[in-house]
Structures are given as C-alpha cells and as structure tokens.
Amino acid sequence: MRGLPSAAMLLAVFTGSLALAQGDGRRSGYQDMGPALQKMQDDDTANPAMLFVQAGETLWNEKAGTAGKSCADCHNDAIVSMKGVAARYPAVAGETGKPVDLEGRINLCRATYQQAPALAPESDDLLALSTYVALQSRGQPVAPPNDLQLAALRAKGAGIYRQRQGQLNLSCANCHDDNPEKKLAGATIPQGHPTGYPIYRLEWQTLGSLKRRLRNCVVGLRAEPWPYDADEYLALESYLMERARGMAMDAPAVRP
Amino acid sequence: MGPSAALGATVGRRSFLAGAITVVPFAAHATPDALAAAVKEVTGGSPVHEGKVKLDIPPLVENGNAVPLTVKVDSPMTPDDHVKAIHVFNEKNPQPHVFNAWLSPANGRALVSTRIKLADSQKVVAIAETSTGEFWSAHTDVIVTIAACVEDVT
Amino acid sequence: MANVLVSAPKTAKKGQVVEIKALIMHVMETGFRPGTNGRIIPRNIIQDFSATWNGREIFRMKMSPAIAANPFVSFSAVASESGTIAFRWSGDEGFLAEHQVAITVT
C-alpha cells in the first residue's frame, strides 16, 4: 500500500482533517499521486491553486454589480461563514427551489444580491471565488444535504454513472468502480471522488472545476459532452458527492 | 480519426487522442546532439565532471506539464569557492534548454527548485559552474506518463 | 497587476540561510503547441526572474519554454541585513511584474 505523507506534514497544513485513509477502502485521488505531487498540494506557499485562492480573496472583498456589494458585505469573513459550505454542495438554493453546484450558487448570489452579471463557466473570476470558498472546507467531511429533491438528482446521477456511453462504450463505473488503482495507458485510475475540487490539474496547466473534469472524461470516452448548463453534470456531481460522503475535503487539490 | 473498431477493456494511449496534440510532425525535437551543443555553449568545451550535483526529480512523472525539480550542489558557497551558475538541459523537448540560474555566496546554499515541462521520457542534465572554473554535473533518466484521455482544447 | 505569491520569512537571524519561494500566474505558452485551428500558438513566456536584497542581486534565472506554467522558483539566501527583498519577472509581450517583501534581520 502506498505510504501516506508524514503525520507532521499533514497536520501542518491540514489541521482538523479526517485521515485521508478511510477505513472503508475509499481512497482520495491524493493517495494515488506520487510524493512530489502530494508535496506540491500540501505546501500552501507552493501550490499553484493558491494563486487562485489569492485572487478569490480579493474578489470576495470587491464591490460588484449595480447593488455595489461585495461577498463580504453579507458573508463577512469567509473563513468563518464559508466553513464547510463547499462540502455541502450541490444543494437546493432557497431562492429558486432548485439544486445548484457551488459555481451556480455564486452566480445566483451575484444575480440576486449584487445585481451583477453571471461569471462565465470556467472563467478565472468564477474559479477564483469557488476555490477561495472551497478552501474553507479543507479537512471537513463531505456532507451532502438530505433533501428529497437532491435524492432524486442523485438517483439520476447514479444512473448516468453506470450508463455506457461514447464510441468507447464505457461507463464511469467501468473504470472508477471496477478498475481503480489499475493503470490506463500509464495513468493510475483513481476511484473518482471529488474531494479536491476545484483542482489545479497539471494536464490543464491551470485550475478547473469538477464540471470541466467530467466533460473531459466524457470527451475521453468519445461521447458528445452535454452542454455546460446541462442537468447531467449536476446529477453526476450530486451522486459523486454522496458516494464520497464522510471523506475529507482536500480542496484546492493538485492532480495530474 | 476514430479508434479502431474492436476495443476491449485495454485501450492504447493513442486511441484516446481527441486531437493530434501529442503527435506534431512539424515540431523539431532536441536531439542528443542539440543537448551536447547546448552544454558546450555553457562550458566552452571544458571538461565536465560527474559529481557534487544532486538532481532531484521524480523517476516516474504523472504528467509532463509540471515536473518538480530540485538541483542541489555540494559547495561551501564562500567567496573563494562557490557555485556561480546552474544550467539544466533536456534531451527530447523541442529545444534543449530548461533554465539557467546565477548564484553567489549570498545564497548560502547552492539550491534551486522549480517545475519543468518534459515532453517525453528523457534524460535531464544539470551542470554546475563553480567560481574556480570547474564544471560538475548530474543526470537522470525520467519516465513521463501522460493523461489517458486528452480533452478538446475548447 | 500580476498575481504573485511570495513566501519569505518576516524575520531572521543574521547569517541564517532562509528559503525563499516565488510563484506567479503566467501561461508560459511554449510556442510549440498547435491551437484548435492547427496553427502554432505564439510563444508567451517569462524569460527573466531576479531577486535583490536591498538592491543587491541575490538570484537570477533565465527561463525557457521548458518551465511549467505558473512558474514556481525556490532558492536560498543568507540573511544579511534588514530591508527589502525585491522580485522581478519579465518576458514576452512586454510582461513585467514586480513584488517586494520586508524582512527584519536581528
């Protein structure tokens, strides 16, 4: 079994985190990386994702929209108000009664309370804000809310997860449930838990969301990816978070 | 451009290529000759001794886009005896240079860490130039794996 | 203004060797990659990075297209005197970024 980073190192950056090694056999993608990449993730002074966190902190405090409000004006210090939030998304938004992921929630806040235009998907600003918020859940257990609407969404997501698709005719489950830790063309197949998102992915040479990663996989299967606002992503994300329930968040993570 | 018809559970890397990103026929590659020429540019033909330099790079790289690399040189870093410069080269990227770093006794330690791009499995060479005019080197053969599925650029 | 993350101790003892880390957001486009239209995306990299301690150069690096995106550099320096450690990055397309940190040496 691959060695875990030293306890001192984990403690230094990861205070309060649940052990990444779950007793139940679930493994975070962090554990599938070599020590050099684990070190890159653990060091807040060297993790490239922290550039986005820094930008996100600035945006958090910046007034926006015709309402001229900043996130801080309502939510004050993110370290306090956003603790554990990312670990609970996707969730049902009170304002619309519909499920949203974290990026969707941010845009909903912008539209409703800041009267500011939505930030484009995968835009630097949206990623900066979602990364800054996700950081505040580091070490917290993944805790999707119990809600009938979400349960239906998760069931839909579970169905998509097991559905073969694309020219390669593979389902998510074929790789991530049936063959994790095995190699796919030289790369280790992770179990596919979203505990690290948004991630700095070396393949992208930048930070990106879970949605981008899911799109990436669907394209990899040689299937037509669903449009950015498709329900399928929300369903899959909800299912994946439920599947990872109780695992420690390690966002913003580094992944190959 | 689609993958071949009969696909079992094991698929080769190239079947996953959505675009021809890794196979670029018109990009020149550095060759061992280009590497040697780049080294000679720095050493001026002086002899290069193996030793004193420690090149820390993972032997198996999960993604060639950002490979952590540390070069450490055994040197007292005094005004009389210190590392003046560290030069790092590669063998198979489109061009042979990685970086040049200039140091002095003000560093206290001859140590540079950065992250580099490696296009393929290849040799990486680090050369330290000392204030006494000597050249010391180390090299490592690195295996670079790539992501199994390549997404569209859009 | 460029997005920069520098890590250096705020205090040090005279003669102590300190570790300095510098991370900057930059695409480091190699100039070897084809874009979606099949044409090569032009090179856009940081070429030079330097650090000074109270104006005296303590480190200089020439980067090539082989340096990874969002370049990270770490080096050491002997804590000589209190003052300012200044960092400078410059490169293609007139790129220029500067950053400073204060350090107290006792």
Summarize this, please?
The complex is a heterotrimer of chains A (256), B (154) and C (106). By secondary structure, chain A is mainly alpha-helical. Helix content of chain A is 41%, strand content 6%.
Radius of gyration of chain A: 18 Å
Largest interface, Cβ cutoff 8 Å: B-C, 35 and 31 residues
Overall pLDDT metric of chain A: 92
Helical residues, percent of chain A: 40-55%
CATH architecture of the domain at 27-40 and 142-255 in chain A: Orthogonal Bundle
As a percent range, the share of helical residues of chain B equals: under 10%
Looking at CATH, the homologous superfamily of the domain at 27-40 and 142-255 in chain A is Cytochrome c-like domain
- Report the structural category of chain A: mainly alpha
| Unreliable residue stretches of chain B | 1-27
Task: Spell the H/E element sequence of chain B.
Answer: HEEEEEEEEE
Spatial separation of the terminal alpha carbons of chain A:
20 Å
Structural class call of chain B reads mainly beta
Distance N terminus to C terminus of chain B? 18 Å
What does this structure look like?
The complex is a heterotrimer of chains A (256), B (154) and C (106). With 256 residues, chain A is mainly alpha-helical. Chain A is built from 11 helices and 7 strands. Chain A has a 3-stranded mixed β-sheet. A two-stranded antiparallel ribbon of chain A has the order 1-2. The longest helix of chain A is centred in the middle third of the chain and has 15 residues. The radius of gyration of chain A is 18 Å and the shape is globular. Chain B is mainly beta and 154 residues long. In chain B, strands 1, 3, 5, 6, 8 and 9 form a 6-stranded mixed β-sheet that branches. In chain B, strands 2-4-7 form a 3-stranded antiparallel β-sheet, with no helix packed on it. Chain C is mostly beta strands and 106 residues long. In chain C, 0% of the residues lie in helices and 54% in strands. Chain C has no helices and 8 strands. Chain C has a 5-stranded mixed β-sheet with strand order 2-8-7-4-5, with no helix packed on it. Chain C has a 3-stranded antiparallel β-sheet with strand order 1-3-6, with no helix packed on it. In chain C, strand 4 and strand 5 form a beta hairpin. The model of chain C has no long low-confidence stretch (mean pLDDT 96). At the B-C interface, strand 6 and strand 7 of B face strand 5 and strand 6 of C.
